Each structure stands twice: as C-alpha cells, then as structure tokens.
Amino acid sequence: MSKHYLEYSEEVSLAQEKKIPIVALESTILSHGLPYPENWETGQALESILREKGVVPATIAIADGKIKVGLSSKEMKDFCQDKNILKVSRRDLPCVVALGKKGATTVSATMICAAMANIRVFVTGGIGGVHRGAEKTMDVSADLAELAKTPVAVICSGAKSILDLEKTLEYLETQGVNVLGYKTDDFPAFYSRESGRQVDYKVETPQEIAAIMQTKWNLGLEGGIVIANPIPLSHALDDKEMEGCIEKAIEEAQTHSVTGKAITPFLLSRLQDFTKGRSISANIALVKNNTALGAEVALAYHKAVNFV
Ligand code: PSU
Ligand code: MN
Predict the structure, then answer these.
(1) In CATH, what number is assigned to the domain containing residue 55?
(2) How many folded domains does the chain comprise?
(3) Strand ranges (E), 131-266
(4) What is the largest CA-CA distance in the chain?
(5) Looking at ligand 1, which atom is closest to the CA of residue 261?
(6) 279 alpha carbon to ligand 1 midpoint, in Å?
(7) What's the pLDDT tens digit per position in 214-249?
(8) Given 38, 212, 232, 294, which residue has the most CB atoms within 10 angstroms?
C-alpha cells in the first residue's frame, strides 16, 4: 500500500533495479537547520560524497502528495530556497502528504520513509532527544520513539547539548536502541567530540557496524541503531563557549514562549547568530564526515547481506 505514496528519483529507481547501495538523507537539516545558500551547497556536496564512493543518495522530502525518495537538483534547490516548508515528523506525515503540502522530513519521518523504500542506512547531523527541562515540559523528540521501532541505522554526530544528553541516552537504553560510538567510547555532543557520557559499544570499522545491523534485524529485533561519529577535530567548537550560547538561546526561547516543534529550529538559528556562523561550518563539516562513513557502512552492509 505504501508504495502508492512513494515517488523515486530516476537515479534511486535505477539503483534499486541494479542493487546498488542507497543512503537516505534528511531534508529538515536543509530547510530548518541551515540557511540558503549553505543548505543547497551542502545538500549537493553530500550527494556527491556518496556518488564518489559508488553509493546512490536519496534525499527524502514531501511534495505534491508524494513522499519523494531522491530529489532532482532542481527540486532540492526549491526546497532550500522556500521559507514555507513544513517540518514533518511522524505525526505530520499523513497530513502533509494528504493535503499536498511541501514538507521537509526530520529524523523520525526520514526513518519511516527510508524503511518504506527498503533503505537501511540514513545519514544526518544530529538526532533529536529529550529536551532540558523535560521533567516539566515533557518535550521528548519523536526521533527517539522512532529509533525504538523503525529498522534504520542513523549515522550522526550524537545530539546537541541543547538537549539533556543524559536523559536522551537513558531513553534510548530503555527502548533498546543501540548507541554505537565510531572509534570512540564517549557519546559525541555534535559541536564537541565528547559529552562525558558513554556509548553502548565502541566500534572500529564499517564492517563491525554492518554486522551489528545484520544481526539485530536477523534476530527479529525491531528498531534502529544510532551510530555516533564525532565531529572532525579541526572543526570542533569550544565546549564552554557553546554552553554559554545554548543557555542564552534557551532563555530567549522561554522569554518568547517558543515551544513544541518550533523550539529546535529556533535554538539552532540563535546558535548560528551567537557564533557568527561558526556553528554552520561545524555543522557542515560533521555532516560531510558522517556521509563518508555512511557510504562505507552502506557498502559493508550490502556486502554482508548479499554474501559478496
Ligand atoms: N538537531 C540538530 N539539527 C537538526 C535537527 C536536530 O542538531 O537539524 C532536526 C532534525 O531533523 C531532527 C529534528 O530530527 O530537528 C528534531 O526536532 P524535534 O526536537 O522537534 O523533535
Ligand atoms: Mn518536541
């Protein structure tokens, strides 16, 4: 049934036919996470990184009543320039598709769409999580519940410390979501390589990651896997400075009563302002680095499941 709603790009269709590994990319990071033209340049650069490694990119977004799996460069540019794109998480998905609106998929919605298209590897910057003060607001990203049930490996640089990382990791543990550190024991905090909190297992190679994916799903265990890949050292930002910016941004959000799905984009954009764009170059560097790892993981997983 879900096939009816999916529209594949030519490149993705061909890859499916020829059994070429495909990696999913999200569109909220483009529409709500980065300004134009950096979002457009980054979106294109990520796709090139994958193609150079022999992997086909599938940037996922909603338009014309369809879930687009793979965007043409014209479609991607349109998404990057349009200021009125809706942010689509799990619950928004049926509404935005049925009403024919344009939507950018978050981690949760991208995982759902990737799984429908039988894509098992998805690359992004950071996942959503349990927000600071969640004991009062109950603000817990839908990304976490999705990771508990949808079988996609999400390659990211951990989560930003705009969130309560300790509670985020507790939630993932309760829900049986694997949190793997790529060449690290420490869960990365997006702009910094370490959060001071431990990952579940340290992994050293894309082959180890692929083996865990294959084993988990062969065992019939539902849900996803977080693969946390630290930001390259040369781009890491200063922890103390970022904490100051984050506290200021959260305070502003409270003053302006920003809540619900608006809060994460609000905090991201304030961090861009406070760091005079340095948060943007960090973000771009880490997502490129994650994309290169994603390609390796997709190739290794493809080999593992096809015994090649
Ligand atoms: N965190 C980031 N960058 C992002 C997001 C989160 O560092 O772009 C986006 C992702 O699309 C993520 C979503 O899935 O925000 C989470 O939103 P919320 O906190 O409303 O669940
Ligand atoms: Mn929320």
Answers:
(1) 3.40.1790.10
(2) 1
(3) 153-156, 178-182, 201-203, 225-228
(4) 57
(5) 20
(6) 15
(7) 999 999 999 999 999 999 999 999 999 999 999 999
(8) 294
Spatial distance between the Cα atoms of 118 and 93, rounded to a whole number of angstroms: 18
Calpha distance 216→52 (Å, rounded): 29
CB of residue 90 inside a 6 A radius of ligand 1 = no
**pLDDT tens-digit readout, 17-48:** 999 999 999 999 999 999 999 999 999 999 99
Q: Is the pLDDT of residue 308 over 70?
A: no
The whole domain housing 165 covers: 2-237+285-307
- Structural domain includes residue 26: yes
In the chain, the DSSP E strands lie at 6-8, 22-25, 56-63, 66-69, 86-88, 103-105, 121-123, 153-156, 178-182, 201-203, 225-228
Contact between 194 and 228 under an 8 Å Cβ cutoff? The reply is no
Nearest CA to ligand 1 atom 21: 141
Confidence bin at 201 (pLDDT 50/70/90): very high
CA distance 137 to 58: 35
CB-based burial label for 50 (10 Å; 0-12, 13-18, 19+): buried
